[in-house]
């Protein structure tokens, strides 16, 4: 359609708009449909300018900063956009937005008539205007506020800045000026002498909504197209039809945006009870959105815990079905000295845990809760002893990872040791089970730039694909699994996957692993991984040692001085030991007096 070296971004943007128009026609309102139609009718230069602006940080843009060879005259290209109301040069601009638009020297000239970033020139600049509205100004790039005194603008007398040093930072100037200039005003009033247009993008929210509908999230942006075009990222081709989309109703999109606004408000320190009420109003019939809402509730509860606001934290957790919320409720009951309630809830979790993680945490809490209510301490469940090795090594002359140092110390030609952590076993799983992971199930894939299925962390991820995973794992009962993994490693090289760590793999490592890891052990690992994909993808041991001649292996978790096993590491170690898989913990200390 367009030469890729000039208009690649516009081509990608048009493809995204067409995708949304085709798949979400019934969810678009009149303004959104009109935007799609009007964009198609624009001159190419105007289309390109709009796309460029939407892909950059806005919402305000100076014409002098919109220099693109393929667009040419930005002012001319902006004309049709302004005529549609998509760009506005007269929209009110806040002081913060003005500061975002200009450099510190420009702002000093604009407000004080100073010739540099120093505030020492404020006196002459202010006196020349004779009142707080005086602003000398000329060229906005080289001299947004000269000392001519011929124009009116936001000049501020030096008495407002007596506490500022001449080397005051831009942020300090902004804080000082906020007390004087608290009302938004058009850019022409901020800088009457400006000799270039400045525009505000007025369709940002509308285009943000379209971006959400295309990607199904707001953490991906239009750069995904560019990275794919450049070959930086490659994505699996999934055969999904026009009905495959993230949102089924317009209310779903509204709910997502409302939850996103709540998450932003949380990060900005909003009033927690008010925010909790807002999130309560975002209830949706969409299970995917309800999970997102539950996660926001969990984050609110955690923020309240940090603030020691126990009642609001408890209220958040009581509404929350996100994994981990029940454990936090128990902790808050305990913090509020409600030990009976805490114990009752902990016993419910013990008898019907939502995950191995919760079971582990509750087992650790119960003895303390029994003591708090005056009951005898119950017997702890038995644990399997994990083999341990203690190494005393020479401290490296230059800082280095203790895992790498241990790897190099243990490595032998006939027993090579590799640092793999979570990479190797996850990758073997991902390669073997590729068809199940990328199966085009409803609600899994919405657009061409997905690293994996959207429901990867959902509680029913495995259940929805149980038969598909069973077929993949059944290959471990035959000799063909080895060829399947190696062939898929070749065929899918570099394609994004939530399980495959391409940068950590090599044909040598894969061959060693397939030679030395029994398929029965692989099935054990993969089965546990599928029990809780989100949690069990991490926590695997750091190193793996191979004995190729004997076709055996050992997993090794390395702990340096003062380093303790994490909960998910403990769970993996216990699982391996209980199933007869060779694993050990290697505790490393440094020789005293070593260089």
UniProtKB/TrEMBL annotation:
BP terms from Gene Ontology: interstrand cross-link repair
Region (Disordered), start-end ranges: 121-161
Enzyme kind, highest EC tier: hydrolase
Entry keyword set: Hydrolase, Magnesium, Manganese, Metal-binding, Nuclease
Source taxon at top rank: Bacteria
Cofactors that this protein relies on: Mn(2+); Mg(2+)
Coiled-coil stretches: none
Catalytic activity: Hydrolytically removes 5'-nucleotides successively from the 3'-hydroxy termini of 3'-hydroxy-terminated oligonucleotides
Listed Low complexity bias regions: 121-158
UniProt GO MF annotations: metal ion binding; nucleic acid binding; phosphodiesterase I activity
Stated family: Belongs to the FAN1 family.
Full protein name: phosphodiesterase I
